[in-house]
Amino acid sequence: MARITAGVGCSHVPAIGVAMDSGITEQPYWEPVFEGFEKSREWMKDQKADVIFLVYNDHCTVFDASCIPTFALGCAAEFAPADEGWGPRPVPVVKNHQKLASHIAQSLILDEFDITIMNEMEVDHGLTVPMSVMFGDKGPDDKWPVLVVPLCVNVVQYPAPTGNRCYNLGKAVRRAVESFDEDLNVVIFGTGGMSHQLQYKRAGLINKEWDTDFLNRLTTDPVSLSQMPHVEYLREAGSEGVEMVMWHVMRGALDDDVTEVHRHYHVPASNTAVGHIILENKTS
Amino acid sequence: MGMDKDYEDIPGTFVFDADRGREGYHLNQFCISLRLQENRDTFNTNEESYLDAYPMTAEQRAAVLNREWNRLLELGGNIYYTSKLAANDGINFQDLAGIMTGMGREAYRDMMLHGGRSPEGNRYQSEWDKKEND
Ligand SMILES: [Fe+2]
Protein backbone atom coordinates (compact mmCIF):
# COMPACT_ATOMS: atom_id res chain seq x y z
CA MET A 1 0.00 0.00 0.00
CA ALA A 2 1.18 3.52 -0.69
CA ARG A 3 1.30 5.86 2.31
CA ILE A 4 2.00 9.48 3.18
CA THR A 5 4.66 9.61 5.88
CA ALA A 6 5.61 13.26 6.18
CA GLY A 7 4.86 16.79 5.05
CA VAL A 8 6.98 19.76 4.08
CA GLY A 9 5.87 23.39 4.08
CA CYS A 10 8.11 25.62 2.04
CA SER A 11 8.24 29.08 0.41
CA HIS A 12 8.91 29.03 -3.32
CA VAL A 13 10.37 32.51 -3.90
CA PRO A 14 11.60 32.76 -7.53
CA ALA A 15 14.75 34.66 -6.45
CA ILE A 16 15.83 31.57 -4.46
CA GLY A 17 15.88 29.65 -7.74
CA VAL A 18 17.79 32.45 -9.44
CA ALA A 19 20.33 32.48 -6.59
CA MET A 20 20.91 28.72 -6.95
CA ASP A 21 21.03 28.86 -10.74
CA SER A 22 23.58 31.67 -10.72
CA GLY A 23 25.70 30.12 -7.94
CA ILE A 24 25.49 32.98 -5.45
CA THR A 25 24.04 31.04 -2.50
CA GLU A 26 27.13 31.71 -0.37
CA GLN A 27 26.85 35.47 -0.61
CA PRO A 28 25.98 37.13 2.73
CA TYR A 29 22.48 38.03 1.50
CA TRP A 30 21.63 34.42 0.63
CA GLU A 31 23.72 32.41 3.06
CA PRO A 32 21.16 32.55 5.93
CA VAL A 33 18.37 31.55 3.55
CA PHE A 34 20.12 28.38 2.43
CA GLU A 35 21.64 27.47 5.79
CA GLY A 36 18.15 26.62 7.02
CA PHE A 37 17.73 24.03 4.28
CA GLU A 38 20.93 22.08 5.00
CA LYS A 39 19.23 19.91 7.60
CA SER A 40 16.23 19.55 5.28
CA ARG A 41 18.36 18.06 2.51
CA GLU A 42 19.81 15.51 4.93
CA TRP A 43 16.34 14.69 6.19
CA MET A 44 15.02 14.38 2.63
CA LYS A 45 17.76 11.89 1.76
CA ASP A 46 16.97 9.81 4.84
CA GLN A 47 13.31 9.57 3.93
CA LYS A 48 14.02 7.56 0.78
CA ALA A 49 10.79 8.95 -0.63
CA ASP A 50 9.48 7.40 -3.84
CA VAL A 51 7.04 10.16 -4.72
CA ILE A 52 6.46 13.80 -3.79
CA PHE A 53 2.87 15.02 -3.96
CA LEU A 54 3.65 18.67 -4.59
CA VAL A 55 1.03 21.37 -4.00
CA TYR A 56 1.97 24.66 -5.65
CA ASN A 57 0.57 27.46 -7.76
CA ASP A 58 1.33 28.72 -11.20
CA HIS A 59 2.18 32.46 -11.39
CA CYS A 60 0.48 33.38 -14.67
CA THR A 61 3.12 31.42 -16.52
CA VAL A 62 1.56 28.26 -17.84
CA PHE A 63 -2.04 29.18 -17.08
CA ASP A 64 -3.12 32.46 -18.64
CA ALA A 65 -6.40 34.20 -17.81
CA SER A 66 -8.38 32.23 -20.40
CA CYS A 67 -8.80 29.22 -18.11
CA ILE A 68 -8.40 29.26 -14.32
CA PRO A 69 -8.87 25.87 -12.69
CA THR A 70 -9.04 25.95 -8.89
CA PHE A 71 -7.35 22.55 -8.55
CA ALA A 72 -5.41 21.08 -11.49
CA LEU A 73 -3.74 17.69 -11.11
CA GLY A 74 -0.71 16.92 -13.28
CA CYS A 75 -1.32 13.58 -15.00
CA ALA A 76 1.22 13.91 -17.85
CA ALA A 77 4.29 11.66 -18.03
CA GLU A 78 6.59 14.60 -17.40
CA PHE A 79 6.64 18.35 -16.79
CA ALA A 80 9.28 20.62 -18.30
CA PRO A 81 10.42 23.81 -16.53
CA ALA A 82 8.61 26.74 -18.16
CA ASP A 83 10.04 29.97 -19.55
CA GLU A 84 8.75 32.64 -17.13
CA GLY A 85 10.11 35.55 -19.10
CA TRP A 86 13.83 35.06 -18.52
CA GLY A 87 14.31 31.54 -19.95
CA PRO A 88 13.46 28.17 -18.32
CA ARG A 89 15.32 27.29 -15.10
CA PRO A 90 18.28 24.98 -15.81
CA VAL A 91 16.90 22.10 -13.72
CA PRO A 92 15.81 18.57 -14.63
CA VAL A 93 12.47 17.76 -16.22
CA VAL A 94 10.07 16.55 -13.52
CA LYS A 95 8.86 12.96 -14.00
CA ASN A 96 5.46 11.86 -12.81
CA HIS A 97 4.29 8.59 -11.30
CA GLN A 98 1.62 8.58 -13.94
CA LYS A 99 -0.27 5.55 -12.68
CA LEU A 100 -0.52 6.98 -9.19
CA ALA A 101 -1.57 10.38 -10.56
CA SER A 102 -4.42 8.93 -12.61
CA HIS A 103 -5.50 6.84 -9.63
CA ILE A 104 -5.55 9.96 -7.45
CA ALA A 105 -7.51 11.87 -10.11
CA GLN A 106 -10.16 9.18 -10.22
CA SER A 107 -10.32 8.79 -6.46
CA LEU A 108 -10.58 12.56 -5.81
CA ILE A 109 -13.45 13.07 -8.21
CA LEU A 110 -15.43 10.17 -6.75
CA ASP A 111 -14.63 11.69 -3.35
CA GLU A 112 -16.37 14.86 -4.65
CA PHE A 113 -13.28 16.99 -5.31
CA ASP A 114 -13.85 17.94 -8.95
CA ILE A 115 -10.28 18.54 -10.02
CA THR A 116 -9.06 19.43 -13.50
CA ILE A 117 -6.88 16.81 -15.20
CA MET A 118 -3.75 18.14 -16.92
CA ASN A 119 -2.32 15.82 -19.58
CA GLU A 120 0.06 18.49 -20.87
CA MET A 121 1.67 20.96 -18.50
CA GLU A 122 4.88 22.87 -17.92
CA VAL A 123 5.80 23.96 -14.40
CA ASP A 124 7.14 27.26 -13.05
CA HIS A 125 9.21 28.25 -10.00
CA GLY A 126 6.28 27.40 -7.72
CA LEU A 127 7.18 23.74 -8.25
CA THR A 128 10.86 23.79 -9.17
CA VAL A 129 12.13 26.01 -6.32
CA PRO A 130 10.89 23.66 -3.54
CA MET A 131 12.48 20.76 -5.46
CA SER A 132 15.77 22.66 -5.61
CA VAL A 133 15.87 23.65 -1.95
CA MET A 134 14.99 20.14 -0.76
CA PHE A 135 17.13 18.13 -3.22
CA GLY A 136 19.99 20.54 -3.92
CA ASP A 137 21.61 21.69 -7.15
CA LYS A 138 20.68 19.66 -10.21
CA GLY A 139 21.41 20.58 -13.81
CA PRO A 140 19.17 19.97 -16.82
CA ASP A 141 21.01 16.71 -17.60
CA ASP A 142 20.61 15.35 -14.06
CA LYS A 143 17.59 13.54 -12.67
CA TRP A 144 15.48 14.37 -9.64
CA PRO A 145 15.77 11.44 -7.22
CA VAL A 146 11.97 11.15 -6.88
CA LEU A 147 8.84 11.12 -8.98
CA VAL A 148 6.45 14.05 -8.56
CA VAL A 149 2.66 14.29 -8.73
CA PRO A 150 1.91 18.04 -9.02
CA LEU A 151 -1.28 19.70 -7.83
CA CYS A 152 -1.62 23.25 -9.09
CA VAL A 153 -3.94 25.54 -7.09
CA ASN A 154 -5.36 28.89 -8.18
CA VAL A 155 -4.29 31.53 -5.68
CA VAL A 156 -3.90 34.38 -8.17
CA GLN A 157 -7.49 35.30 -8.96
CA TYR A 158 -9.54 35.83 -5.81
CA PRO A 159 -10.94 33.77 -4.29
CA ALA A 160 -8.44 31.00 -3.79
CA PRO A 161 -10.06 27.84 -2.40
CA THR A 162 -10.75 28.21 1.34
CA GLY A 163 -8.34 26.84 3.89
CA ASN A 164 -11.06 24.45 4.97
CA ARG A 165 -11.47 23.15 1.42
CA CYS A 166 -7.71 22.70 1.11
CA TYR A 167 -7.49 20.90 4.44
CA ASN A 168 -10.25 18.49 3.44
CA LEU A 169 -8.68 17.99 0.02
CA GLY A 170 -5.54 16.89 1.86
CA LYS A 171 -7.61 14.24 3.62
CA ALA A 172 -8.99 13.07 0.26
CA VAL A 173 -5.47 12.93 -1.20
CA ARG A 174 -4.47 10.72 1.71
CA ARG A 175 -7.42 8.38 1.08
CA ALA A 176 -6.46 8.24 -2.59
CA VAL A 177 -2.82 7.44 -1.85
CA GLU A 178 -3.72 4.79 0.73
CA SER A 179 -5.97 3.01 -1.74
CA PHE A 180 -3.15 2.60 -4.26
CA ASP A 181 -1.70 -0.91 -4.31
CA GLU A 182 1.97 -0.27 -4.97
CA ASP A 183 4.20 0.01 -1.90
CA LEU A 184 5.24 3.67 -2.06
CA ASN A 185 6.59 6.19 0.41
CA VAL A 186 4.92 9.51 -0.42
CA VAL A 187 5.95 12.86 1.07
CA ILE A 188 3.61 15.79 0.56
CA PHE A 189 4.79 19.39 0.01
CA GLY A 190 2.65 22.48 0.57
CA THR A 191 4.38 25.52 -0.90
CA GLY A 192 4.15 29.32 -1.16
CA GLY A 193 4.25 32.21 1.28
CA MET A 194 5.05 33.25 3.85
CA SER A 195 3.98 36.87 4.35
CA HIS A 196 4.64 38.97 1.26
CA GLN A 197 3.06 41.59 -0.93
CA LEU A 198 4.50 42.20 -4.38
CA GLN A 199 2.14 44.88 -5.62
CA TYR A 200 1.10 48.50 -5.35
CA LYS A 201 1.81 50.95 -2.54
CA ARG A 202 1.86 48.47 0.35
CA ALA A 203 4.43 46.20 -1.34
CA GLY A 204 7.04 44.82 1.03
CA LEU A 205 4.70 43.92 3.87
CA ILE A 206 6.17 41.30 6.20
CA ASN A 207 4.46 40.02 9.34
CA LYS A 208 6.85 37.86 11.32
CA GLU A 209 4.54 37.53 14.32
CA TRP A 210 1.70 36.28 12.15
CA ASP A 211 3.95 33.88 10.24
CA THR A 212 5.30 32.43 13.49
CA ASP A 213 1.80 31.93 14.81
CA PHE A 214 0.81 30.23 11.53
CA LEU A 215 3.72 27.79 11.84
CA ASN A 216 2.91 27.07 15.49
CA ARG A 217 -0.75 26.38 14.82
CA LEU A 218 -0.03 24.38 11.68
CA THR A 219 1.62 21.79 13.91
CA THR A 220 -0.63 21.86 16.95
CA ASP A 221 -3.98 23.34 15.95
CA PRO A 222 -4.46 22.75 12.20
CA VAL A 223 -8.26 22.51 12.16
CA SER A 224 -8.87 25.92 13.66
CA LEU A 225 -6.08 27.37 11.51
CA SER A 226 -7.81 26.06 8.38
CA GLN A 227 -10.88 28.14 9.28
CA MET A 228 -9.06 31.44 8.84
CA PRO A 229 -10.91 33.69 6.35
CA HIS A 230 -9.11 34.95 3.23
CA VAL A 231 -9.32 38.57 4.33
CA GLU A 232 -7.03 37.84 7.27
CA TYR A 233 -4.31 36.43 5.00
CA LEU A 234 -4.66 39.45 2.68
CA ARG A 235 -4.60 42.03 5.46
CA GLU A 236 -2.06 40.43 7.80
CA ALA A 237 0.25 38.51 5.46
CA GLY A 238 0.00 40.63 2.30
CA SER A 239 -1.95 40.14 -0.90
CA GLU A 240 0.36 37.34 -2.07
CA GLY A 241 0.46 35.75 1.41
CA VAL A 242 -2.86 34.06 0.59
CA GLU A 243 -0.72 31.40 -1.13
CA MET A 244 -0.43 29.84 2.30
CA VAL A 245 -3.83 28.17 1.92
CA MET A 246 -1.86 25.54 0.02
CA TRP A 247 -0.08 24.47 3.21
CA HIS A 248 -3.44 23.21 4.52
CA VAL A 249 -3.57 20.55 1.80
CA MET A 250 -0.28 19.21 3.13
CA ARG A 251 -1.42 19.39 6.75
CA GLY A 252 -4.77 17.73 6.01
CA ALA A 253 -2.97 14.74 4.48
CA LEU A 254 -1.05 14.07 7.70
CA ASP A 255 -2.13 12.59 11.03
CA ASP A 256 -3.80 14.90 13.55
CA ASP A 257 -0.77 14.34 15.75
CA VAL A 258 2.53 15.16 14.11
CA THR A 259 6.09 15.78 15.19
CA GLU A 260 7.74 18.98 14.04
CA VAL A 261 11.27 17.95 13.15
CA HIS A 262 12.55 21.15 11.59
CA ARG A 263 11.68 24.81 11.14
CA HIS A 264 13.35 27.67 9.33
CA TYR A 265 12.32 31.31 9.01
CA HIS A 266 14.21 34.18 7.45
CA VAL A 267 13.51 37.70 6.16
CA PRO A 268 14.08 38.62 3.38
CA ALA A 269 14.42 36.74 0.15
CA SER A 270 13.69 39.52 -2.32
CA ASN A 271 10.19 40.70 -1.20
CA THR A 272 9.29 37.69 0.88
CA ALA A 273 9.54 36.02 4.27
CA VAL A 274 10.96 32.54 3.77
CA GLY A 275 9.22 29.93 5.89
CA HIS A 276 9.83 26.22 6.05
CA ILE A 277 8.65 23.38 8.28
CA ILE A 278 8.96 19.60 8.30
CA LEU A 279 6.26 17.48 9.96
CA GLU A 280 6.33 13.73 10.44
CA ASN A 281 3.43 11.42 11.19
CA LYS A 282 3.97 9.83 14.58
CA THR A 283 2.67 6.49 13.34
CA SER A 284 5.18 6.01 10.55
CA MET B 1 -27.58 41.31 -4.38
CA GLY B 2 -23.92 42.25 -4.34
CA MET B 3 -21.13 40.37 -2.68
CA ASP B 4 -19.64 41.89 0.42
CA LYS B 5 -16.06 42.77 -0.47
CA ASP B 6 -14.55 42.71 3.00
CA TYR B 7 -11.07 43.04 1.46
CA GLU B 8 -11.58 46.48 -0.10
CA ASP B 9 -10.40 48.44 2.93
CA ILE B 10 -6.81 47.17 2.86
CA PRO B 11 -4.64 50.19 2.02
CA GLY B 12 -2.28 50.26 -0.98
CA THR B 13 -3.56 46.90 -2.17
CA PHE B 14 -5.65 45.56 -5.04
CA VAL B 15 -7.28 42.21 -4.54
CA PHE B 16 -7.47 40.65 -7.99
CA ASP B 17 -11.04 39.41 -7.87
CA ALA B 18 -13.47 38.40 -10.61
CA ASP B 19 -14.42 42.03 -11.37
CA ARG B 20 -10.77 43.03 -11.80
CA GLY B 21 -10.13 39.88 -13.79
CA ARG B 22 -12.89 40.87 -16.20
CA GLU B 23 -11.70 44.48 -16.54
CA GLY B 24 -8.07 43.51 -17.00
CA TYR B 25 -8.53 40.46 -19.22
CA HIS B 26 -7.02 41.72 -22.49
CA LEU B 27 -4.33 43.71 -20.69
CA ASN B 28 -3.28 40.64 -18.73
CA GLN B 29 -3.39 38.39 -21.81
CA PHE B 30 -1.07 40.86 -23.55
CA CYS B 31 1.33 40.81 -20.58
CA ILE B 32 1.53 37.03 -20.38
CA SER B 33 2.27 36.79 -24.11
CA LEU B 34 5.62 38.43 -23.29
CA ARG B 35 6.84 35.41 -21.40
CA LEU B 36 8.03 33.98 -24.74
CA GLN B 37 11.16 35.38 -26.40
CA GLU B 38 9.65 35.35 -29.87
CA ASN B 39 6.81 37.60 -28.69
CA ARG B 40 9.14 39.87 -26.77
CA ASP B 41 11.16 40.38 -29.96
CA THR B 42 8.05 41.32 -31.96
CA PHE B 43 6.79 43.64 -29.21
CA ASN B 44 10.16 45.35 -28.84
CA THR B 45 10.35 45.98 -32.59
CA ASN B 46 7.01 47.78 -32.73
CA GLU B 47 5.01 48.13 -29.50
CA GLU B 48 2.02 49.90 -31.09
CA SER B 49 1.37 47.30 -33.76
CA TYR B 50 1.87 44.42 -31.30
CA LEU B 51 -0.73 45.97 -28.97
CA ASP B 52 -3.28 46.13 -31.81
CA ALA B 53 -3.85 42.39 -31.36
CA TYR B 54 -5.17 43.01 -27.82
CA PRO B 55 -8.48 44.87 -27.59
CA MET B 56 -7.71 46.67 -24.32
CA THR B 57 -9.08 50.10 -23.40
CA ALA B 58 -7.32 53.29 -24.49
CA GLU B 59 -6.33 53.94 -20.85
CA GLN B 60 -4.84 50.47 -20.47
CA ARG B 61 -2.97 50.85 -23.75
CA ALA B 62 -1.53 54.21 -22.72
CA ALA B 63 -0.49 52.81 -19.33
CA VAL B 64 1.37 50.00 -21.10
CA LEU B 65 3.14 52.35 -23.51
CA ASN B 66 4.05 54.77 -20.70
CA ARG B 67 4.98 51.99 -18.26
CA GLU B 68 2.70 53.40 -15.56
CA TRP B 69 3.05 50.41 -13.25
CA ASN B 70 0.51 51.47 -10.61
CA ARG B 71 -1.99 52.62 -13.23
CA LEU B 72 -1.82 49.16 -14.82
CA LEU B 73 -2.98 47.66 -11.52
CA GLU B 74 -5.69 50.30 -11.10
CA LEU B 75 -7.02 49.32 -14.54
CA GLY B 76 -7.36 45.61 -13.78
CA GLY B 77 -3.81 44.37 -14.26
CA ASN B 78 -2.43 41.78 -11.88
CA ILE B 79 1.14 41.89 -10.63
CA TYR B 80 2.02 38.40 -11.91
CA TYR B 81 1.01 39.59 -15.39
CA THR B 82 2.46 43.10 -15.28
CA SER B 83 5.74 41.64 -14.01
CA LYS B 84 6.13 39.98 -17.44
CA LEU B 85 6.16 43.45 -19.03
CA ALA B 86 8.61 44.57 -16.35
CA ALA B 87 10.84 41.54 -17.02
CA ASN B 88 10.84 42.46 -20.69
CA ASP B 89 12.21 45.85 -19.63
CA GLY B 90 14.83 44.25 -17.37
CA ILE B 91 13.02 45.18 -14.13
CA ASN B 92 12.77 42.41 -11.51
CA PHE B 93 10.07 42.01 -8.84
CA GLN B 94 12.01 43.87 -6.18
CA ASP B 95 12.85 46.87 -8.34
CA LEU B 96 9.27 46.98 -9.60
CA ALA B 97 8.13 47.16 -5.96
CA GLY B 98 10.61 49.99 -5.45
CA ILE B 99 8.88 51.88 -8.25
CA MET B 100 5.28 51.07 -7.24
CA THR B 101 5.80 52.12 -3.63
CA GLY B 102 7.44 55.37 -4.74
CA MET B 103 10.40 54.56 -2.47
CA GLY B 104 12.96 53.87 -5.15
CA ARG B 105 15.20 50.85 -5.54
CA GLU B 106 17.70 51.46 -2.73
CA ALA B 107 15.28 52.57 -0.02
CA TYR B 108 12.95 49.66 -0.79
CA ARG B 109 15.76 47.11 -0.73
CA ASP B 110 16.96 48.57 2.53
CA MET B 111 13.48 48.31 4.07
CA MET B 112 13.36 44.61 3.13
CA LEU B 113 16.79 44.00 4.62
CA HIS B 114 15.49 45.49 7.86
CA GLY B 115 12.52 43.16 8.15
CA GLY B 116 10.13 44.61 5.57
CA ARG B 117 7.11 46.88 5.93
CA SER B 118 5.50 46.44 9.34
CA PRO B 119 1.78 45.61 9.44
CA GLU B 120 1.43 48.29 12.16
CA GLY B 121 -0.56 51.18 10.70
CA ASN B 122 -0.86 49.36 7.37
CA ARG B 123 -3.90 47.16 7.90
CA TYR B 124 -6.81 49.51 7.22
CA GLN B 125 -7.39 52.33 4.74
CA SER B 126 -8.53 54.48 7.67
CA GLU B 127 -5.02 54.25 9.13
CA TRP B 128 -3.54 55.64 5.90
CA ASP B 129 -6.20 58.37 5.66
CA LYS B 130 -5.37 59.43 9.20
CA LYS B 131 -1.65 59.60 8.40
CA GLU B 132 -2.39 61.81 5.38
CA ASN B 133 -4.49 64.20 7.43
CA ASP B 134 -1.96 64.48 10.24
FE1 LIG C 1 4.06 31.87 -5.31
TrEMBL record, chain A:
Protein origin, superkingdom: Bacteria
An annotated Gene Ontology molecular function: oxidoreductase activity, acting on single donors with incorporation of molecular oxygen, incorporation of two atoms of oxygen
Organism lineage: Bacteria, Pseudomonadati, Pseudomonadota, Alphaproteobacteria, Rhodobacterales
Ranges for domain Extradiol ring-cleavage dioxygenase class III enzyme subunit B: 9-274
Keyword Oxidoreductase: yes
Segments forming a coiled coil: none
Region forming the signal peptide: none
Native source species: Shimia abyssi
Protein name: Protocatechuate 4,5-dioxygenase beta subunit
Annotated keywords: Dioxygenase, Oxidoreductase
UniProtKB/TrEMBL annotation, chain B:
Top-level taxonomy: Bacteria, Pseudomonadati, Pseudomonadota, Alphaproteobacteria, Rhodobacterales
Alphabetical list of SUPFAM superfamilies matching this protein: LigA subunit of an aromatic-ring-opening dioxygenase LigAB
InterPro entries xref list: LigA_sf, PCA_LigA, Xdiol_dOase_LigA
Source species: Shimia abyssi
Domain Extradiol ring-cleavage dioxygenase LigAB LigA subunit: residue ranges: 27-112
Official protein name in the record: Protocatechuate 4,5-dioxygenase alpha subunit
UniProtKB keywords: Dioxygenase, Oxidoreductase
Region Disordered: start-end pairs: 114-134
Gene Ontology terms for molecular function: dioxygenase activity
